[in-house]
Amino acid sequence: MPAALPDLPDDPSHASQHDPQHDPLSRRMRALRRSDVRDLLRHAGLPDMISLAGGLPAAELFDVEGLRAATLAALDDTPAAALQYGMTEGQPALREAIAALLGERGIVAGADDLVITAGSQQGLDLVARVLLDDGDAVVVERPSYLAALQAFGLASPRWCTIGVDAHGGRVEDLDAACAGLRPKLVYVVPDFANPTGACMSLERRRALVRWAVRHQVTVLEDDPYGALRTGGAPIPSIAALAAEVPGASNWIAQASTLSKTVAPGLRVGWLRLPPWLRDAVVRLKQAADLHTSSLAQETARHYLASGRLPARLAIVRAEYARRRDALAEALQSGFGDRLALQVPEGGMFLWGRFTDGTDTRALLPHALERGTMFVPGDAFFVDAADAASLRLNFSAAPPDRLREGARRLRDAHAALHARAAAA
Questions:
Q1: What CATH number did the domain enclosing 209 receive?
Q2: Does residue 13 form part of some domain?
């Protein structure tokens, strides 16, 4: 069991302790919600803690040998490019390599369509800041990726939400969700969505492309997990499907990253953008950070050139499938029909919902006391949250630890309900 636990994260809605009449923080900063996921990371290092919370790749599967060689190649072969200031858009050789990688995924892209970012999270932030004025309408899935909600939330938008089912975001509900508003942005995670693990159907992806062209609204497709498919037939990305519809390429943007496939510590992601949006994003990135780390970019470029990624991904996919199945089977055995699970064909997360009235925010302290943790599902909603839901990560721990985490979660659930019965 872990040592004494720190206090639980502050209420995400908490703003500032300052006198509001003399608060030195900006209005946008005061309104910025905390990330439950990032706050929970401070518990992850406690002795014997089994984290089912963070979206961390398996560190033991990182290709350390390949990355070491790529870093040395960057310093030996291209030292000036690795250590000098670079172009805001990103190193030309890396953009060419990413364009080739996208081509393997059926996406037509040239180097000039891409902007290299400090992880895909910076890409989401840049697109949001370029497009959104305060109060603009933004469409997100319900539930949606927490850090995207943070990035978009800085503009205090008018949220429009579409539900998610086993076939992904319900794009057929877009017109009803917008209620007469013309949104500035539609944000979706179509492959193994964070948090639900859902995969958007081909029919819905095509419908979303047609809707974007008809309404002339930018769609931002976030694709960090598509390369982590462990079963089922691949579905073309929204960016690939845009080639089928005249004019669609002007309204479809895509963010992706090497964080889930190579290593998050590189902080190398990218945006594929139409020209009008790319120009604006580059100007904003110039003001934000000048450019993404040259050394990280050159390391990434040399790693992709090494040809090691496909074999490494095969290892990662096989292990993630083992881990997913171990956690899902342990949860199903421990909870039975009290916990409904969505088990995806890839990605890094299980989405669960208790059918017995369990409030997962109330469950979390009991889980932490027993040495495991998860993310309460209410963190992923911008409107009426589902208090019975939770997100569980399976990628960061081996199968035996995942089974033990499920057992501890079952004990925490029993303790919560025993206390409620005794009250």
A1: 3.40.640.10
A2: no
Using the Cα atoms of residue 357, residue 362, residue 365 and residue 368 in order, give the sign of their dihedral.
positive
Q: How many domains, in total, are found in the chain?
A: 2
Do residues 131 and 239 both lie within one domain?
Answer: yes
By three-state DSSP, how is residue 34 classified? coil
Closest CA to 228 of 270, 256, 267, 188: 256
d(CA 79, CA 271): 26
Q: Rounded to an integer, what distance in angstroms lies between the CA atom of residue 364 and that of residue 375?
A: 8
Q: In what order do the strands lie in the sheet with 158-165?
A: 114-117, 269-272, 252-257, 218-222, 185-188, 137-142, 158-165, 168-169
Q: Where are the alpha helices (DSSP H) in 290-336?
A: 294-306, 309-335
Q: Which pairs count as long-range contacts for 159-168, CB under 8 Å and 24+ apart, including other chains?
A: 159/382, 159/383, 161/382, 161/383, 164/193, 164/196, 164/198, 165/198, 166/198, 166/342, 167/198, 167/199, 167/200, 167/201, 167/204, 168/141, 168/193, 168/198, 168/199, 168/200, 168/201, 168/204
In this structure, which amino acid lies at residue 139?
A: V
Q: Please report, as a single letter, which amino acid is at residue 98.
A: I
**Pick from 412, 318, 308: nearest CA to 368:** 412
In a domain, 324, yes or no: yes
Domain span holding position 211:
64-306
φ/ψ of residue 245, rounded to 5? -115, 120
pLDDT tens for the 423 residues of the chain, in order: 444 444 444 444 444 455 656 778 777 777 666 656 556 666 666 789 999 998 999 999 999 999 999 999 999 999 999 999 999 999 999 999 999 999 999 999 999 999 999 999 999 999 999 999 999 999 999 999 999 999 999 999 999 999 999 999 999 999 999 988 999 999 999 999 999 999 999 999 999 999 999 999 999 999 999 999 999 999 999 999 999 999 999 999 999 999 999 999 999 999 999 999 999 999 999 999 999 999 999 999 999 999 999 999 999 999 999 999 999 999 999 999 999 999 999 999 999 999 999 999 999 999 999 999 999 999 999 998 999 999 999 999 999 999 999 999 999 999 999 987 887
CA 21 to chain centre: 36
CA distances from 239 to 28, 205, 211, 333 (A): 32, 10, 14, 40
Indicate whether 36 belongs to any domain.
Answer: yes
